[in-house]
């Protein structure tokens, strides 16, 4: 069995742009260099925004770029019930609570802006609610305090091989509380599992040894490592790479249609042009 398995895990909610192409090509190159495996996973748990057309276009773009995945594509939407087992495990340890707060409620309850943080840290309004109190429209949140108490004797760590954060990172409970807080694990009004958990579980169940992704996701790694450890799943090595930015230094987003790979493709550019543009 190969000991290097990586994946490209786009959300099919828009076209691939140069930043995604860089991520996918780097991932593929690293897998090929290590004589490992490269997998493609569609993170399509956002049922409103994920579209089969984007899924198809992403596969077309990747193929045009010369990338081949070594197993059938895994689509999270096709295996939603498989996550229940893990949610049940967390619930058994009393690590989940129902939450009915809207985004506006959360903003109003936050005393200070959470600038620089990847998301708004939940102020804990519903924290005291037992899971038996869950209504159909409630989200489920991780009770991070209890999770950290459970892990206190043996705090997990992870290896990072990417440039900016290279080294061993031990989970810091205070930092986790301040920067991450009680994240949503299943979204409000849907049975749908949220990104943090689905992605971490799939990394483990697909046997991913190396998660290669943009450094904008670095701050989420701690919570994913915490979740994996709580679930007794293996923690991969992480490699967060630089982001491709526009001429103003802004990170490219899905709406940057001008930089969509399909646009370059239709304009007659070649995969080698794309490699050059992203510095590969
Ligand atoms: N699905 C996520 C995205 O498109 C990436 C998740 C990951 O690589 O861990 O931003």
UniProtKB/TrEMBL annotation:
The keyword Aminoacyl-tRNA synthetase applies. Keywords: Aminoacyl-tRNA synthetase, ATP-binding, Ligase, Metal-binding, Nucleotide-binding, Protein biosynthesis, Zinc. One of its GO terms (biological process) is glutamyl-tRNA aminoacylation. SUPFAM superfamilies: Nucleotidylyl transferase. The keyword Cell membrane does not apply. GO terms for cellular component: cytosol. Belongs to the class-I aminoacyl-tRNA synthetase family. This is Glutamyl-Q tRNA(Asp) synthetase. It comes from Aliiroseovarius sediminilitoris.
């Amino acid at each position: 069995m190969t000991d290097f398995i990586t994946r490209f895990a786009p959300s099919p909610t828009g076209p691939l742009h140069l930043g995604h192409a860089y991520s996918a090509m780097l991932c593929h190159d690293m897998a090929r260099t290590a004589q490992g495996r490269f997998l493609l996973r569609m993170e399509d748990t956002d049922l409103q925004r994920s579209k089969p057309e984007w899924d198809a276009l992403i596969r077309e773009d990747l193929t045009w770029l010369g990338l081949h995945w070594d197993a059938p594509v895994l689509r999270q939407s096709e295996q939603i019930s498989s996550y229940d087992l893990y949610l049940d495990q967390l619930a058994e340890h009393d690590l989940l609570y129902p939450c009915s707060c809207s985004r506006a409620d959360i903003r109003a309850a936050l005393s200070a802006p959470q600038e620089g943080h990847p998301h708004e840290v939940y102020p804990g309004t519903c924290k005291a609610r037992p899971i038996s109190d869950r209504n159909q429209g409630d989200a489920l949140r991780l009770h991070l305090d209890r999770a950290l108490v459970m892990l206190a004797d043996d705090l997990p760590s992870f290896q990072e091989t990417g440039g900016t954060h290279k080294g061993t990172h031990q989970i810091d409970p205070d930092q986790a509380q301040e920067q991450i807080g009680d994240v949503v694990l299943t979204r409000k009004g849907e049975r749908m599992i949220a990104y943090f958990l689905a992605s971490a579980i799939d990394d483990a169940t697909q046997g991913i040894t190396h998660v290669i992704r943009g450094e904008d996701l670095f701050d989420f790694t701690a919570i994913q490592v915490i979740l994996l450890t709580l679930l007794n799943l293996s923690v991969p090595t992480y490699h967060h790479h630089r982001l491709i930015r526009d001429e103003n230094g802004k990170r490219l987003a899905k709406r940057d249609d001008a930089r969509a790979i399909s646009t370059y493709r239709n304009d007659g550019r070649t995969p080698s042009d794309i490699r050059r543009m992203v510095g590969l």
